[in-house]
Write a structure and sequence with these properties.
A hairpin with a 2-residue loop joins strand 5 (205-207) and strand 6 (210-214). This protein is of the alpha+beta class. The chain is built from 15 helices and 23 strands. The strands form 7 sheets. Strands 4-16-17-18-21-15-14-9 form an 8-stranded mixed sheet. A 3-stranded antiparallel sheet has the order 1-2-3. It has a 3-stranded antiparallel sheet with strand order 10-12-11. 35% of the residues lie in helices and 19% in strands.
Amino acid sequence: MLARVRAGSRLNIAQYFCLRTCAGSGISAQRSGQQRRTLIQPSFDYKHIRDNAQVLLQNAQDRNVLDARPHRVGELYDEFRKLTTLVNEKRSELNSLSKELGSLARNLSNKHRGNVKNVEEPTASNSGMDQSGLQAAMSDLKEKASIAKATIQAIDAQLKVVEARLQYEASKLPNISHPDTPVGDESQARTVKTVGTLHTKDKIPLDPWDGTGLSEFDFKDHYDLALDLGIVDMEAGAKVAGSRFHYWRGAGALLELALVQYAMTRATAAGFTPHITPDMARSSIVDACGFRPRSGAEENARFDAHMDSKDQVDPARSRSSGEASQIYRVSAVAEEDTSGADSNAESDPLCLIATAEIPLVAMRAQQILDRRQLPISAAGLSHCFRAEAGARGRDTRGIYRLHQFTKVELVTLALPENSQKELSRLVDFQAALYSDLGLTFRVLQMPTHELGASAYQKYDIEAWMPGRKAWGEISSASNCTDYQARRLGIRVRASAAKDGSSAPVFVHTLNATAVAVPRIVVALLESHQRPDGSVVVPQALRPWMMGMDVLVPGSH
């Protein structure tokens, strides 16, 4: 076990020493000096990474994560332990020197005053010394103490560097993948089931609730339908905010509100507590949830000062050459006008969230939960913001791929032994939600390249969009196991062991889309259109549509 220093030590090594976590030998790094206000230190199990480096490397390669280096984590972990042992030995030496100096100082003071009764027992270093001898011994000990302090400071500086490298390298490792996950890119996705038979041919049924009567009329694209119905204005969105921003108008605005009410009502009935979340989160929170708030070049530059020859990464394998960040960063005008200040806002800036998953999970950060509370299920309404870097020219017509949209997200915090059962519950809830909207959809088990950083297992649901003549993703559901909880410090008391102990363990976090409004609207418009260009409103949404059962062209 790594050595520790008493809490009362004058120079607290806990600032640099990573404490063991309940998982075994995980280390929770603690920064010294200027600690950021919102920074939450992750708890990585470095020993596990070191002992399973080859398995973790293969897992990263299967997930197309090219800059993961678990073997380097193991090397840095061993180096960290050696430096920690060394600094503890030096601190022990300094403590002994300090005690001996104190004893000499008291004896010298008592001899100077002639107070023989209070002269302490002689030690090997001061036996039989007169005042000049004591002064010389003290001078020698002070010099040794000064050297010890300088040595400790130098080792502490090394520990800072090694800790930064260690945490950075560990943070690049993705979650482990479920054994059943297909290996490869999205072409390897496995169809679990298909629900519904509506519009599996390029025909339009005269009655959208009856797939037997088909006309010869071709399906219209969702954007043509939306323009004819007057429910969306992309031109105004582009003029005000730029391309791929939009306005909902008239029945379009009601349709968004109806979908939100529908999803929230169903989620609440299923035991999810409704929330309306912040649309922004700190960069450190976004990162902890598995989203990349910085570009690859920025990420590498942050650690240039801590790099040595072993840490220099081939640019072709670095984050800067990988997937572009989809996160928008935000700064206040007042902060931009502040010069020369290394503020918290500068070191941990605000970001626009890509999903309510981020604030819903993070609201439990640094908590130890009562296991009787679990599972904790929440439904969060938020706007979502995505840069969609790298998506230029791909599905950019209409409202299929936008920079800002409204979404209802589901999040569950579960006991580790129950998380896979909770994932099935989330997927079943989604399927019921979309079935009652009259959509044809399929559930896909996603392959390793599509898991992102955090997911252990992930399912996507794609709706058949007859106007696009293609399947289109409308939701996903993921079990992130302890990936996010380790980075946010979310734990739960384990069930009591035979010895009566119940050390906290990390919870498992799961997320699932209930309704991503624009994608559902695309599927609804194309699936429920009629030959005259009108669109039937699904029965499930009519309570919130102010009496509109059918959307009619020209009625706006």
